[in-house]
Amino acid sequence: MLFHAEILARDEEGALERILRVFRHRGYGVRSFRAVADQEQNLLHIEVEGESERPLPQLALQIEKLYEVIEVTVGVLATVLPKFENRGVNQVMRRPVYASSSRG
Amino acid sequence: MIGADAIIKALEHEGTDLVFGYPGGAIMPVFDRLLDAGFKTILVRHEQGAALAADGYARATGKVGVCIATSGPGATNLITGIANAYLDSVPIVCITGQVAAPSMGTDAFQEVDIFGMCLAVVKHSFIARDARELYGMVRRAFAIARSGRPGPVLIDLPKDVSIQQVETLEAWLELESKPNIVPDDALARAVQLIRDAERPLIYVGGGVGISGAVKAFRQFVNTTRMPVVATLKGLGSIETEHPLFLGMLGMHGMKAANFAVEHCDLLIAVGARFDDRATGKLKEFAPRAKVIHMDIDPAEIGKNRFAEVSLCGALDANLKALTLPLEKVEWLEQCLVWKDQHRWNYEAPGEGIYAPRFLQLLSRLVPRRTFVTADVGQHQMWLAQHFALQHPMEHLTSGGLGTMGYGLPAAIGAQLGNPDSLVICCSGDGSIMMNIQELATVNRYSLPVKILLFDNQRLGMVRQWQELFFNERYSAVDLSDNPDFVALAKSCGVDGMMIQNRQDEMPGIDYLINHPGPCLLHVRIDPDANVWPLVPPGKSNIHMMEGAAHAVSR
Q1: Nearest to B92 by CA among B136, B151, B144
Q2: Which sign, positive or negative, has the C-alpha torsion B93, B97, B100, B105?
Q3: Beta bridge partners of residue B293, listed in sequence order
Q4: Does the beta-carbon distance from B119 to A64 stay under 8 Å?
Q5: pLDDT band (50, 70, 90) for residue B264
Q6: Integer Cα distance of B48 and B428 in angstroms
């Protein structure tokens, strides 16, 4: 199942790592993500697209537990790629990482 | 005033009466100021001992435990203790020294990214970047550690920040409380489910003890008169010898408890999280039951098992709302028949000491408010099965992480928090060696901790699994070259005695209860004794294996 998650958090040290860790650890593969720090408001806005067989509400609940997190929205995506194109995400971002990995 | 002073002030204002620690280069400014602090510093002999002792102190007092270590190895040695507190929801605050901020990220001497390493095992963590924020950071760490579902909080403290000048202690913001998210009609639906159920069962976990809802829980049980099963950490939520208590459920649960779960049509989970050791094969757990799930952590509700009604929030109020008199006589009678049919049989053959019987006898003879701590393995399960408890706070066991080496440091923490209580550390010959260095801490502070060491010269639980599931191929479980435990204890200033015959049971119990100072009772037991019943991994809880000669329930 493809999913989309949007997270608003306080931009405290380690917040990005802490949030992304939850995706990996709880079994929600990240295919792409975009994070913007709003320094004026000390806010971090993260958008993630990924794939998982696990129930989505559990992902939201686990992320909501994090101290920095203000708001989480998680939903099912019909497909990932068209959405990327609509947003004008460049080609580099769409290329699977393993295809270009020097480690094979 | 420097940063280290701000930390001490914050700890004092939190009412800290002791911290566990081990000094080193990067944390020296803090240890310097600890000399003048309004609380004690307990020097352990290994940082893991500090974290686990802080955990034991927190569990046995209901306060926040504190441990302090240096950077690098000092910090990494804490991690097992932090993970232990995380998985068992124990409030501790850990302060680690760090190399000076300009050196961070240069692989400096004794530098590790402890903040990064601990992300997976803390409720929250901070890196102190400015001494002016330290006071508020420590206060906030305490608030986070004990709020909601408690857990460990880490503060990484670069050395230059700890010596940076601070003018005033900055005011800090109270933690905003999270609103309860119980829907309006949930309580009404829960009441309806309870009224409609023919075979309701209460499944209690560690949450009742942690949240201080023991009184409300007992009122709930005594009024509704529903039978109760408990998880390892839920033991003592209702007295072990209470007539409505059927026993621990799960892998090493009592048969009556597992039968009741199998046949109930309503399962009321109170501060429990459907852990695999409790549920066995999840799909076949409580197959006939609807579920009411009460927990403070929304992420636990529906995580492993769908709940027809979720009551997310403080247990106390929700339990009170469900406390109503019920008459489910037939079901209760059935449960009590199971309980009677499958009560423990303490008549083991032979002349040796039978650990389950020893523990059961001991629990009947100890004074009230005795604390028992467990290490991990067969003795831990025997303690859970056979030691009758009066209160969940009095049973300190590493449930989630299963940390061998927990028992002795936890006993140190429990004893320091309860100087007048009897504290017994129940351990095995494998586990005790994992933090044996803390015998020196017991001696240093003259703590009257009693160590009950069951010695089968094996890693008993692993051996049992190899016997049952690995074709009796015994790999790396032989400990027949153990040290002389009595001599080892004596070398650390702790008295010791060895027993191995059944006739020495009572003198052994008397020694544990009445010896004036710290002591170690070395109890040799049958290496072939197993923990029964046992639900094999991946099987449903009704598939309970039992051995022929040892430790069977009827």
Answers
A1: B151
A2: negative
A3: B269, B310
A4: no
A5: very high
A6: 18
Question: Residue A18 is nearest to which of B119, B144, B298, comparing CB atoms?
Answer: B119
B371 φ/ψ angles, rounded to the nearest 5 degrees = -100, 135
Mean pLDDT estimate for chain B: 96
The model's confidence at residue A79, banded by pLDDT at 50, 70 and 90, is: low
Predicted pLDDT at B159: 98
Q: In chain B, pLDDT over 70 holds for what percent of residues?
A: 98
Structure-token pair, residue A81? 């790629």
What CA–CA distance (Å, rounded) separates B24 from B160?
15
A60/chain B closest Cα distance in angstroms: 9
Instruction: Check CB contact under 8 Å for A14 and B298.
Output: no
Chain A residue with the nearest C-alpha to that of B175: A67
Q: What's residue B43's pLDDT?
A: 98
Mean pLDDT of A32-50: 95
Q: How confident is the model at residue A98 (pLDDT cuts 50, 70, 90)?
A: very low
* Pairwise CA distance, residues B149 & B206, whole Å: 11
Q: Indicate the residue type of B503.
A: Q
B32: left (phi over 0), alpha (psi -120 to 50) or beta: alpha
Closest CA–CA distance from residue B474 to any residue of chain A (Å): 33
Burial class of B163 by CB neighbour count within 10 A (0 to 12, 13 to 18, 19+): middle
B127/A14 touch (CB, cutoff 8 Å), yes or no: yes
Containing B427, the helix (H) or strand (E) segment is strand B423-428
Q: Is the separation of the CB atoms in B407 and B426 below 8 Å?
A: yes
Q: Using an 8 Å Cβ cutoff, are B148 and B211 in contact?
A: no
The mean-pLDDT minimum among A92-96, B475-479, B499-503 falls in A92-96
Q: What is the mean pLDDT of chain A?
A: 82
* Ordered DSSP codes for B33-100: HHTTSSSEEEE-SSHHHHHHHHHHHHHHHSS-EEEEE-STHHHHHHHHHHHHHHHTT--EEEEEEE--
Read off the tokens for B157.
């403290």
How far apart CA B187 and CA B482 sit, in angstroms, is 56
With CB atoms and an 8 Å threshold, state whether A14 touches B129. Answer: no
- Say how many CA atoms lie within 13 Å of B243 toward its Cβ: 6
Interacting residues of B554 by C-beta distance below 8 A, sequence separation 6+ = B341, B342, B343, B344, B345
| Whole-structure pTM value | 0.94
pLDDT interval class at B170 (50, 70, 90): confident
Q: How confident is the model at residue A44 (pLDDT cuts 50, 70, 90)?
A: very high
Residues 16-75 of A with CB under 8 A from B: 17-18, 21, 25, 57-58, 61-62, 64-67
In tens, the pLDDT along B274-294 reads 999 999 999 999 999 999 999
pLDDT grade, residue A38 (50/70/90)? very high
Q: Which among B234, B191, B244 has a CA at the least distance from the CA of B213?
A: B234
> Phi and psi for B153 in degrees, rounded to 5?
-125, 135
Instruction: Say how far apart CA B96 and CA B76 lie, in whole Å.
Output: 9
- In this structure, are strands A2-10 and A43-51 parallel, antiparallel, or unpaired? antiparallel
Read off φ and ψ for residue B268, nearest 5 degrees.
-105, 105
Predicted pLDDT at B529: 94
